[in-house]
Design a protein that fits this description.
Number of helices: 2
Strand order of the largest sheet: 2-1-5
Radius of gyration: 14 Å
Order of helices and strands: EEHEEEH
Oligomer: single chain
Structural class: alpha+beta
Length: 83
């Protein structure tokens, strides 16, 4: 089942094969923040900022989640790394 990034009911990203793929995209886009709940004061956990959601989605016509992932991976390899 493919997954995508949503805000309310609007699909904001392409579809990707796994939820983990969309988390990676969201983190790269700066949409992931670390949150600490009152119960879990020892270590923060990643959450999506501003009510964004990652959820299963319907594919757009002619959309291929595997190709979308390959394209995103290729783009990530081509970007210069800042250390």
């Amino acid at each position: 089942m493919p997954y995508a990034l949503f805000y309310q009911d609007a699909k904001l990203s392409k579809a990707y094969p796994t939820e983990a793929d969309v988390w990676k995209l969201a983190r790269k886009s700066g949409l992931v923040v670390d949150a600490v709940s009152e119960e879990e004061t020892s270590s923060p956990r990643p959450v999506l900022d501003n009510d964004y959601e990652i959820r299963p989605c319907q594919l757009d016509p002619n959309e291929d989640p595997v190709k979308n992932k390959a394209d995103a991976d290729r783009e990530a390899r081509q970007e210069p790394r800042l250390n």
